[in-house]
Amino acid sequence: MVDNGTSGPQVRGQIWRDGEPVDGFELAKVSDCIDDPSTMIWADLVDPSHETLSALADELDLNRWAVEDALAASERVKATGYAHHTFITVYAVAFDGAAAAPDSELDVEFAENALKVQRISMFLVGNALITVRLTAGRDAADDRSAVFDMDDVVARWDEIGGLERGVGSLLHGLLDVVVDGHFEAVQQLDDAIEDLESMLFDDSTGSRSLQRRTYLLRKNLVALRRVVLPMREVVSLIQRRRDALGSSDRLDAEFTDLYDHVLRATEWTESLRDMVTTVFETNLSLQDARLNTVMKKLTGWAAIIAVPTAITGFYGQNVPFPGFEHTAGFVTSVVLLLTAMVVLYVLFKRRDWL
User: Fold this and answer.
1) Distances in Å between the alpha carbon of 317 and those of 325, 333, 339, 352?
2) Which of 43, 77, 132, 346 is the most exposed place for a label (fewest CB within 10 A)?
3) CATH number, domain at 222?
4) Residues 268 and 331 reside in one and the same domain
């Protein structure tokens, strides 16, 4: 593997001949080796300029719209088959589970930094895999380039030991690492939602904090869903165009297994969306129940106070009443007040109104 080691745009790659790595790599050699059936090429361009990628596109006869998509500020997950090559866009993700811990401080940064993504564009042309990754223009304090480590992909390629099976093995290894990242992010989101569920019945947790956390988790889940769900179509198109991979049916089992992983990640993501919705609705229901309990208690105490108020109000009229100007009348009034309050309290308590 060779890295140009310069700041700014970086080019890294490897050429294999008869399954063995060839020393030295230059981007200009890609077009020379692309028609050699005994070779296989991988080139990784990090933050390439438009001129650099356009020049490579002219050499390899890449679709100019695909080149524009690879350099666009944002692009959806997709796979497009052209006459001479296949263009694929996927997103690597990483979720900061610590930011979603119940005892962490809740702030706006949770929504912004908990889920990180990095776009990876791929050109599959002949026996070459060209990857384009964009990391420039991001805040230096937010190292999103760490979301996807190409060294993990290189290690995966070394593990499978199937480089002689064609460029499709390179593509499978890269997508496998990406999907594994999706699984890890979904797992961490699942753990965060379970923590959220345990907080529902914790009286020490404020309702506002719980609502805020639910909203932020749902926001991150929606962002994850946008990059996970379309992966089904991506792997499906690759399976349909497996002849273009130069490996025919030799990688069918691997891509079928990858498609199964994608489906599991998709189904898991969908179930998490239902869980977040359930948590949100349950929280609202609990708030309504608490409000009803408070209103029930307030109504009960109001009734207890209302009866003595009626008695004292009645005897406070400017007319003589039984026991007027006598101690017995005052005692009778007090006894009536206490008796009415005790009777009402017992009745409300039995009905769980207090």
Assistant:
1) 13, 14, 22, 36
2) 346
3) 3.30.460.20
4) no
Vertex 125, ends 46 and 182: CA angle to 5°?
Answer: 55
Residues forming a β-bridge with 307 = none
Supply the mean pLDDT for the chain. Answer: 78
Q: Count of CB atoms within 10 A of residue 217's CB?
A: 25
Residue type, 165: R
- For residue 87 the two structure tokens come to 């263009």
Helix pair angle (64-71, 50-60), 10° resolution: 150
Distance CA 257, CA 231 (A): 13
Which of 262, 223, 266 is CA-nearest to residue 95?
Answer: 223
Among candidate residues 273, 288, 303, the one where a domain is terminated:
288
pLDDT digits (tens, 9 = 90+) for 238-283: 888 766 555 555 677 888 889 999 999 999 988 888 888 777 777 7
pLDDT digits (tens, 9 = 90+) for 208-245: 777 778 778 888 888 888 999 999 999 988 888 766 55
pLDDT in tens, 300-343: 788 777 777 776 675 565 556 666 677 777 777 778 778 887 88
Domain end marker among 288, 304, 334: 288
What's the gap between Cα 267 and its chain centre?
13
**What does the block give as tokens for 272?**
């998490």
Q: How many of the other CB atoms lie within 10 Å of CB of 30? A: 22
Residues 199 and 117 grouped into a single domain = yes
d(CA 143, CA 42): 25
Cβ 168 vs Cβ 88: under 8 Å:
no
Give how many domains the chain has, as a whole number: 2
Q: One-letter amino acid identity for 263? A: L
Does position 109 have pLDDT exceeding 60, yes or no?
no
pLDDT, one tens digit per residue, over 30-72 is 878 887 878 888 899 988 888 888 888 888 888 889 999 999 8
Residues 47 and 159 placed together within one structural domain of the fold: yes
